[in-house]
Each structure stands twice: as C-alpha cells, then as structure tokens.
C-alpha cells in the first residue's frame, strides 16, 4: 500500500509529519513525499524543509493521498498541476485525506462536493462555497474521504485511519510506541474553548473570508 504525502511551498510541517509518523508505521506501507518538482520544500516558518523524492507524474496511483494545509495552500488553489494530479490519483485511491486547509484543495479539485468535511476552524465557512457541508468535528469520514481539522488533528486522523486499515490493535500499538497521550497545559485548542477576544483577533486577520 502506497501513501503519497503532498508537499508544496509554505505548507505547515505538522500537517504532513503528524500523520506521517502514524501511518508510515503500518506494516506494509510505502511512504513517498510528492511535489510538482523533486527536492527540498520549505515549510511555512522557512526554517524547515521536507524533501520531495518523486514528482506527481511519478506517483499516478497511490493507495492513500494525504494533502496538508498551511499558508501555502492559497496559491495552490489555481495550480493545475496539483489539482489535476489530485483528480487523477483520486480515481483509483482507496483513501483520499487531508489535514487543516488541505481540505480546501480537495474541494477546489471537486472531490468533496456534496460531502461532509472539516478544516481549520478559520476555513470552515469558506469551504461552504464548494457545496461541502462543513463540520467542526476533529476527524470526519465520508466514504473514502477523510478530513482532519487544524494541524495537530492530523495525528488523530492518522490513528483513526490506521485502525480502519490495519485494525484496532495495530493502531493502538502505534499510539503506544509514539506515546501519543496528550495532556496540554491549556484547554484552548478550539474556538469554543479559547478566550473570545483571541478568537476574534484571528478571525479579523484570516486569509479566509468569514461570511
């Protein structure tokens, strides 16, 4: 089973690396990082680069497609090379997945029309314009399409998908070995839990229209 993780300039690192750390540990998985061109791809901070070992053209039929998000997602919304590859890969994929605003790229490619999906909380209203039903759930399964909310939720998505692919015990083993037992010092990881003024500040400055 081949897992293709999409890379593009200014993606958010954890969107790709979180699910990678989970899904790549499933026995029999081959993981490949793909992009329009091979070589290093800078993440949104500019301090870290991930390496694309293959081009989209070299990976036409992955079993699992994983699309991260991040600030660099916006300019990719009119990139025909990426969007055409997503449509082609989706024709034969077993699972087509996204993390954070990666779901907007799936929506732009026409893959989520009429389906339920999630995204980063700042992008949920925006995704409606693609005839997608937004939901604030952390991980959403709709057929073979699996979308995760913002950034860290990609780890949860990876575990949920690992359970579907390899069974509960295999997914539990990965969770144990990665010691994924989150105990954050703040309970502020969702807009309904965060201070209202903090939520309002980010809504006022987001790149995604809120109406």
Folded structure, characterized:
The chain is α/β, with parallel strands linked by helices. It has a single domain (2-183), classed as Rossmann fold (3-Layer(aba) Sandwich). 35% of the residues lie in helices and 20% in strands. The protein has 8 helices and 11 strands. Helix 1 links the parallel strand 1 (2-6) and strand 2. The mean pLDDT is 97.
Poorly predicted ranges: none
Shape: globular
Q: Describe the biggest sheet? A: 7 strands, mixed
Per CATH, what is the topology? Rossmann fold
Number of domains: 1
Distance between the termini: 40 Å
Oligomer: single chain
- Per CATH, the superfamily is Class I glutamine amidotransferase (GATase) domain
Q: How do you describe this structure in short?
A:
This protein has 211 residues and is an alpha/beta fold. It is built from eight helices and eleven strands. The relative contact order is 0.15.
Please name the defining characteristics of this protein:
INH-QAR; globular; DJ-1/PfpI family protein; alpha/beta; Class_I_gatase-like; 211 residues; 8 helices; Rossmann fold; 20% strand; 11 strands
Please render the helix and strand layout as text.
Layout: E1 2-6, H1 13-23, E2 30-35, E3 39-42, E4 49-52, E5 54-55, E6 64-67, H2 73-76, H3 80-92, E7 95-99, H4 102-108, E8 116-117, H5 124-127, E9 133-134, E10 139-142, E11 145-148, H6 153-166, H7 168-177, H8 196-205
Helix pairs in contact: 1-6, 6-7
